[in-house]
Structures are given as C-alpha cells and as structure tokens.
Amino acid sequence: MSHIYVSQENDPYFNVAAEYQLFLGAKENVSLFLWQNESTVIFGRNQNVYAESDLAYLKRTGIVPVRRFSGGGAVFQDMGNVNFTFIVKENFANADAFLSVIQQAVSSLGLECTFSGRNDLLCEGKKFSGHAYYIDNGRYLYHGTIMVHVDLDKLSGALSPSLLKLQSKGIASVRSRVINLSQLDHTITIKAVQQAMIAAFRNMYGQHLPIEYVNQTNLQPETFEQLQSKQWIYGESPEFSITEERKLSFGNVTLSAEIENGRIQRMKIYTDSLYTLEFVELEQRLIHTLFDSNEVFAQINEFVERL
Fold first, then answer.
1. Is 235 a member of any domain?
2. Model pTM score
3. Would 46 be classed as within a structural domain?
4. Residue 38 is part of which domain span?
C-alpha cells in the first residue's frame, strides 16, 4: 500500500534527512512526503555553495545552507513553499504519473500549468515548481518545490553570489523567472496546496490512504548530523578558485584562494589600507583549513587588530 507522510518539523536539516531516511525504505508502492522548511538554501549534491549563494547574506538573515543528496540546482525555500517527494523502487518509478499528480493538484486550485524541458512547471510562462530526481541502489526519489508565497526578495538575495570573480567546476543553477501561486490567485494558501496534493495523490494511488506524521520524536534519521557538518556543506564543493572583496575596519580587502575538497590550497590577501600590512603568516596558517569566507575575513580582521 502507498503511504502519505507529512512532516511536523520545519528544520531543513531534519526534513532533508527524513526524506533520505524514507528513501532508504523505498518499496514497490509509491510514497508521498510533504514538508516545509524555515528559510534555507538547499544546494544540489555537486554544487559549489560559494558560486550559488551569498553566504554573508545567508548568515546575516539567518538563512540555513543545506546540501542534499540529489543533484540539480540550488533552491531557496521558506515557509511560503511546499516541498513534495515521491519515493518508490526504481523499477516501479513513473515520473509522468508523479507529474500528473502535481498538475491535478494545481488544476484543482483553478490554475493550469505546463511542463518545461528543464524539469520545471510553469504558470503563465513563469516557474513556480522546480523538480529533481535521485536514484541509488534500486531506489528512486522524485522531488520538488511549489512556490505559494515565497519571499522573493530573500530568494533573490540568497541566490545572488557576492563573489567578484569565481571559476568553478561545479554545476551552476539555471536562473529562471519565478512566480508565487498566490500572485495568480490570492486565495491559494499553503494548506490548500497541501490538501490538493494529498487529494490528487489519493486519486492516483488510493482514496483511503492514511496520513502519517513524522517529527523528531518518532523519526531519528541516520544522516541528520552529517547534513549539519561543515565538511558536508562546504567540503563537498568541487575544486574552484575564488576572488572576493569586502570592506573591513582598516580598508578594502581582497581575498584570492584556490580551493579543493573544500580546503584552502593557496591563498593571497590584498588590501588598499594606508597601513603597511603583511599577511604571509596568516596565509600560511590557513592553508589546508576548511574554507569559510566569513571565517577567513573574521580572522583577517582579528589578525590586523593584533598588530
């Protein structure tokens, strides 16, 4: 029998870990998992977090960076967004059927949507739902987002890299024009979308399927801690070189570094400060450490203050 799971948590680390835990238990019958996150940017498995987002903006606004297990592009999520996941054994996967569930749900809300060639659903030519899939060891996961009333200003700020120059071997997100469903019909709510998804899923897979609620009490995902580690979030970024400039208390500072497996291989620090500053000692100390631009600039400031 198919299952419907709804998360009662809004912690993005928990929800991504819960999704993966349900994926590990994939069966021949399809399961639907619905969830919502507090403000977060979720990166694809092979993406460079520095190329895809403004990490200083994320820290300043309390947006959490999360790296998922599936591929695809970076996506901003907040409580104005509904996440869906279809989970099943690979041999029984039917992406067209999953897509049909979503389209039926949207249609029941009075809107018509079309599928684009980039794994997106569009309303009036604008993207409101992006999709990705993940296959591992005979298990299949198809997931995505539905934008209901996402904060578009935060979305823009979070997904606009602050880096002046960056060359990367990671997978770049495709920037698209986006729209909230509530912009098309102000009566559409998060609850309405969730109920529409459940009704459409039941219509496809069984009218009397029960809803099972998951939370941190009844589910302890194995990857919960892993997803929160800096090594997973930043260390999984592919090899890249970076140049970033920030204004510190003593002047403008430009940081140039080469990063591999998330760790600094080479680094040079420049400044237009009127003071004569030599950063060789700090540059050497930071070699082979995990790269975090916020932390590096904090150490530069601290280094200068001690001189």
1. no
2. 0.82
3. yes
4. 3-229
pLDDT confidence bin for 204, thresholds 50/70/90: very high
Give the domain CATH number at 285.
Answer: 3.30.390.50
Identity of the amino acid at 78:
D
H-helix or E-strand containing 248? strand 240-248
Tokens representing residue 296 in the block:
């590096």
Residue 138: left if φ>0, alpha if ψ -120 to 50, beta else—which one?
left
Helices (H) and strands (E) in the chain, counts: 11, 15
Contacts of 270 (CB under 8 A, 6+ apart): 253, 254, 255, 256
Same domain? For 138 and 256 the reply is no
Residues 258-286 pLDDT 10s: 998 889 999 999 887 767 688 999 999 99
Distance of alpha carbon 176 from alpha carbon 269, whole angstroms: 35
**Cβ atoms within 10 A of the Cβ of 307, count?**
9
Residue 153 CA to its chain's centroid (Å): 17
Closest by CA position to 131, among listed 109, 146, 110, 150: 146
Q: How far apart are CA 222 and CA 81, in angstroms?
A: 25
Assigned token pair, 101: 């569930």
Q: Are residues 106 and 165 in the same domain?
A: yes
